[in-house]
Amino acid sequence: MKDTAHTPNETLRPQEPVMQEIKTDVLVIGAGSGGLSFAAGASQMGADVTLLEGHKMGGDCLNFGCVPSKALIAAGKQAQAMRTGETLGVTPVLPKVSYAEAKRHVHRVIETIAPVDSQERFEGLGVRVIREYGRFVDKETVEAGRYRIKARRVVIATGSSPFVPPIPGLDEVPFETNETLFDLMEKPDHLIVVGGGPIGMEMAQAHVRLGSRVTVIEGAKALGKDDPEMAEVVLKRLRKEGVEIVEEAQVSRVSGKKGTITVHTPKGDFTGDTLLMAVGRKANIERLNLDAAGIKHDRAITVGADLRTTNRRVYAIGDVAGGFQFTHVAGYHGATVIRPILFGLPAKARTDHIPWATYTDPELAQVGLTEAQAVERHGKHAVEVLRFPYHENDRAIAEGKTDGLIKVMVVKGRPVGASIAGEKAGELIGLWALVLANKLKIGAVAAMVAPYPTLGEISKRAAGQYYVPRLFQSDMVKKVVGLVQKYLP
After folding, report:
1. 109 in a domain, yes or no?
2. 328 with 361, same domain?
3. Judging by DSSP bridges, how do beta strands 414-422 and 363-368 pair with one another?
4. What is the DSSP letter of 15?
5. Which residue range forms the structural domain that includes residue 183?
6. Is 201 annotated as a binding residue?
7. 66, 58 in Cβ contact below 8 A?
8. Is residue 152 located within the same domain as residue 298?
């Protein structure tokens, strides 16, 4: 009889895991804002939904982006409030800042919100949650850990992550991104921020207010995607608070070691103890094996206006689909694809009504076209720019928040864009997003009655500027009024 015993030199081959087959109506890959929005809605409407997440529920926004950044900004704002107030009769004091405690506040905020995005909540909604990354093996099949999943439709919502450019020397020095910054418990003595976009400028102001020295290095113009006039309102304040902003300074290389890092640029060398890279985002597509599914992609997944990929069974939403990289856009996309996936109805995603805000102090917000974009698209003579400054608003005067203005771009009586720089700009832009979403005329805002005194009056007063030349500077109107008054019994 043949001896089947293993000899000491034989290596036991691990048994291949048995793949578990799952068939589902919809497979959602990624549990960030877009994926969770879609999964919750689809499951509650009766679809069998499977959700994959290989990292943290809630995605970038909850864990590394919107939520922690705004929590840290709030800590900085509180510290700054103690330094100011003299004009209001309050004696300024030097705040005693615990950077570590500010970060613990950040973590408490995340922990408070996390249950809303948790696995337990979504399982309670009827969603099958699998904590694995997914990859396509063919046009109809996705593998995730020990699961092989076939779905009638797939929604890719894998989001984005920090883009780290191939700068010489960067791979040899320690640096932070938004994915690591909020775990840093020791306050930077001198924070060097590479990137003057929204993330870079928000974190720069938060840190200078919490007691760090901050230098921002930007290869082009800081806040360069916003209206230059509006951006300058913000940049002026940041410089006044002590943020050093170096523009048109492309980084050539980075050198140094932990605690002493030098960023080399044509405008000089800048040395600090902490380096934050904030130069943009890249779509998370590396793990997906998109080619196996026949899904066209470049830096992001290629989609049509209906958010469908080149594989008719697969949709892509949020950051991974390119375009605007905002949490609220991902949520909007998630709601948009509900229609075709669950009901077989056509739906297209718009971009003309999408607002965004930068949460510096003062804030910067935009919806629709900027002044330059409106002129380029419609022509200089077709665009009316309505303006109203914060320093003429009674609430802003009362609170000493008079830096800023609103601009509304109007074509044939219909707003095509609004830009706001100033206190609560991110809140005020919502009205104009509503106007653009519903294609309302400027008269709808002019007719609005805003409570007094509020910052909301800024929007109404801007809308009212549309009628100044038509009513108060019109000879015809004056003649009509004169005749009516002459003959009115």
Report:
1. no
2. no
3. antiparallel
4. P
5. 170-279
6. yes
7. no
8. yes
What is the pTM (predicted TM-score) of this model? 0.92
Q: Is 197 annotated as a binding residue?
A: yes
pLDDT at 5: 45
178 and 146 share a domain? no
Annotated ligand binding at 34? The verdict is no
Q: Determine whether the annotation assigns residue 195 to a binding site.
A: yes
**Co-location of 175 and 257 in the same domain:** yes
Note whether 275 and 385 are same-domain residues: no
Based on C-alpha coordinates, what's the Rg of the chain?
A: 27
Residue 280 is assigned to a ligand binding site: yes
Q: How many domains does the chain have?
A: 3
Residue 286 backbone class (left: φ over 0; alpha: ψ -120 to 50; beta: rest): alpha
CATH code at position 256: 3.50.50.60
pLDDT band at residue 1 under the 50/70/90 scheme: very low
Residue 196 annotated as part of some ligand binding site: yes
Average predicted confidence (pLDDT) for the chain: 95
Average pLDDT over residues 314-326: 96
**Structure-block tokens of residue 80:** 């700054």
| C-beta separation of 245 from 235 below 8 A | yes
Q: At what angle do helices 457-464 and 425-437 cross, to 10 degrees?
A: 50
Is 352 within any annotated ligand binding site?
A: no
Is residue 112 annotated as involved in ligand binding? no
pLDDT category of residue 7 using cuts at 50, 70 and 90: very low
- List the beta bridge partners of residue 129: 51
pLDDT at 169: 97
Q: Binning pLDDT at 50, 70 and 90, where does residue 14 land?
A: low
Q: Is 259 annotated as a binding residue?
A: no
Could you report the per-residue pLDDT of 437-483, keeping only the tens digit for each? 999 999 999 999 999 999 999 999 999 999 999 888 888 888 898 88
